[in-house]
Amino acid sequence: MSDSKAKVNDMTVGTPIKAILLFAVPMLIGNVFQQFYNFVDTTVVGKFVGADALAAVGTTGSMNALLICIAMGLSNGAGVIISQCFGAQRYDEMKKAVTAMMYVASVTGLVITAAGIFLAGPAMRLLGVPDSIIHLSVLYMRIVFGFSLTGIFYNAFAAILRSVGDSRTPLYMLIISSVINVVLDLLFVLKFGMGVAGVAYATVIAQGVSAALCAMYIIKHRYQLHLDALPKLPPKYMVVKIFRIGMPSAFQSAMISLGGISVQGLINSFGTDAMAAYTASSKIDSVAIQILISIAASLSVYSGQNMGAGNIKRIRTGLRQTLMVMIPVCTAVAAVMLIFKRQILGIFLDADSAQNAIEIGCMYLSVIGIGYIIAGIMQSYQNLLKGCGDVNVCVAAGLAELGVRVGASYLFVIFWELQGVFIAIPVSWMCGCIIPVVRYLSGKWTKKSVIR
């Protein structure tokens, strides 16, 4: 492939919704493939290793999400700067941001790796994981965290490409690595009998491949991407700026994940059936909600480029057109989930041996499906504000969502037991939606550009 074929996408021109959706579709497919890693792991473990192993892997989900959220928060912070520099055609500043991003990702990754390896045991005990499966949970977590740099670097490289409007290349790399993940899962588990360790190694190897492929693409097309002659060391002000923009997002995501860890501990108290049901149904939810998140995340890159170019009116138009697409899409996703929930759960759980877990999973999907419209609206407003650099408001919204989810979970469980934990999720989305909507209507976000 020649440099002329590098895929940059200027979202400051053309029809707003067309630019947003053309960017969103490849990112959606890529996000689904990323979730596919987890789908394959869950299916292989549940079908070929057993329900206890599935519960062991599932209970590490919140800790793994914490890892991803911290890394992606910092990557997205750099992405805001890169997209605004690209929109303003300030390419020298963009190069400095890319170099700073790689240094930040490296240091953060090493810290997270060490913390995950040494704290895996205490974390699983804190979550109340049963003694019968805690050794499996600790093993899985140590492998995933031990090689966490593979996922961190993939997200960093993907954020660079998406900031300049290229959502296709990360998709292609993920498709390749997903195939590798499937092959290695089956090989390690069925052929070599590696169990939980096998699916963990398959995942980190596949992530490493996707990171390497993205890096090779960026190097090959560095001139077309305006990423030639990168500075060897980042200027201090750019590192500070990445932390100033990225840390609030990372903190918000981390707090939400910690809330998920707290809720996971509550679910664990209901036994392995509830744990297995939550593992399977939350994987389904993760894929379904990627449709909403992909559309909204496209709005973040769109608003970032247009903020850099000073096109405030175009940002407003993009939001209106996005919401006109988002609401019917959310309705359709919810309808599919509500109608086919039992059949989808059957992919992960055996209908004969895990009937109780399937019933619990159906209850979970029924409750959260009705809240998808609220989640889509919340994601749209929050991502617009993030792209414009108004990240502190998004943190406030995230903390409100977290507080309500955790508080409501522990309150509702008194009245409705396990179902109360599930009801708290759409209630928290509603609270997390209020702050960004009010902020948008105030117009104060228009003064939050990070490059002016």
From TrEMBL:
* One GO CC term, this protein: plasma membrane
Transmembrane region positions? 20-37, 65-88, 100-119, 139-159, 171-190, 196-219, 242-267, 287-304, 325-345, 357-381, 393-415, 421-442
UniProt-listed InterPro entries: MATE_fam, MdtK-like, Membrane_Transporter-Flippase
Q: Name one GO molecular function term.
A: xenobiotic transmembrane transporter activity
Q: What is this entry's stated membrane topology?
A: Multi-pass membrane protein
Q: Which domain of life is it from?
A: Bacteria
Any Pfam family: MatE
Q: Which CDD domains match?
A: MATE_yoeA_like (cd13138)
Q: Which UniProt keywords apply?
A: Cell membrane, Membrane, Transmembrane, Transmembrane helix, Transport
Its subcellular locations are: Cell membrane
Q: What is its main location?
A: membrane
Official protein name in the record: MATE family efflux transporter
Species of the source: Candidatus Ornithomonoglobus merdipullorum
Its taxonomic placement starts with: Bacteria, Bacillati, Bacillota, Clostridia, Candidatus Ornithomonoglobus
